[in-house]
């Protein structure tokens, strides 16, 4: 699998793992203290070939994603779930470098391009109705929904924004949340 866009990752280990999975060029941010040199490289890469932001599914990775997206609008986004990015030996370590080749390839096939924020058909009331905020199962349901829709891990505040940014339709949302609820029912 050959990726035309340049993939922005956090570090060398991420680059090494991605190159095991696909043929691609990367830019490494070397952590969340992204300087102007890195931003200029990403801007140049976006102008020439396009950019996919592919950071770890944790707070620093999300912070890097937001910094880049603000400085270089129009990048594509790829996400890994926390489960797919968790180290096998230690449950504490999360990162692209721990993911399987198949998970990385799938994430890079399912990239999203952010569009200008439009009104979403999905409302905060929908999130409450389906127990995605304010319920004991909310965190699990958001994680599973993010996995099914390939939009990454979110907290309650981020979910509606992420659904809107990635232009998830009400139909896509309802099909996915109904699958989550059915899985919960089957497990009980």
From TrEMBL:
InterPro entries associated with the record:
RNase_M5, RNase_M5_C, TOPRIM_dom, TOPRIM_RNase_M5-like
Gene3D superfamilies in the record: 3.40.1360.10
For this UniProt entry, what is the primary localization, expressed as one broad class? cytoplasm
Query: In what residue span(s) does the Toprim domain sit?
Result: 4-90
User: What PROSITE patterns has UniProt attached to this entry?
Assistant: TOPRIM
Q: What class of enzyme is it?
A: hydrolase
Q: Does the keyword Zinc-finger apply?
A: no
Tell me yes or no: is Transmembrane among this UniProt entry's keywords: no
Q: Which reaction does it catalyse?
A: Endonucleolytic cleavage of RNA, removing 21 and 42 nucleotides, respectively, from the 5'- and 3'-termini of a 5S-rRNA precursor
Task: Give UniProt keywords alphabetically.
Answer: Cytoplasm, Endonuclease, Hydrolase, Magnesium, Metal-binding, Nuclease, Ribosome biogenesis, RNA-binding, rRNA processing, rRNA-binding
Pfam families, per the entry: DUF4093 (PF13331), Toprim (PF01751)
EC annotation from Swiss-Prot or TrEMBL:
3.1.26.8
Top-level taxon of the source organism? Bacteria
Compartments, record wording: Cytoplasm
UniProt cross-references to HAMAP family, sorted A to Z = RNase_M5
Described function:
Required for correct processing of both the 5' and 3' ends of 5S rRNA precursor. Cleaves both sides of a double-stranded region yielding mature 5S rRNA in one step.
The family classification in the record reads: Belongs to the ribonuclease M5 family.
Q: Tell me the protein's name.
A: Ribonuclease M5
Organism of this sequence: Virgibacillus subterraneus
Q: Lineage of the native species?
A: Bacteria, Bacillati, Bacillota, Bacilli, Bacillales
């Amino acid at each position: 699998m050959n990726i035309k866009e340049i993939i922005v990752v956090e570090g060398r280990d991420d680059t090494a793992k991605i190159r095991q999975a696909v043929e691609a060029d990367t830019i490494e941010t070397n952590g969340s203290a992204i300087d102007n040199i890195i931003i200029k490289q990403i801007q140049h890469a976006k102008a020439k070939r396009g950019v996919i932001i592919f950071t770890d599914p944790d707070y620093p990775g999300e912070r890097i994603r937001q910094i880049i997206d603000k400085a270089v609008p129009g990048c594509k986004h790829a996400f890994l779930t926390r489960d797919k990015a968790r180290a096998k030996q230690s449950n504490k370590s999360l990162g692209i470098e721990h993911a399987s080749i198949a998970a990385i390839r799938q994430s890079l096939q399912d990239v999203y391009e952010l569009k200008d924020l439009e009104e979403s058909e999905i409302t905060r009331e929908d999130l409450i109705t389906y127990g995605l905020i304010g319920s004991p199962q909310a965190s699990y349901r958001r994680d599973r929904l993010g996995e099914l829709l390939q939009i990454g891990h979110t907290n309650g505040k981020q979910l509606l924004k992420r659904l809107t940014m990635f232009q998830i339709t009400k139909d896509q949302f309802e099909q996915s949340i109904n699958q989550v609820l059915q899985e919960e029912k089957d497990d009980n």
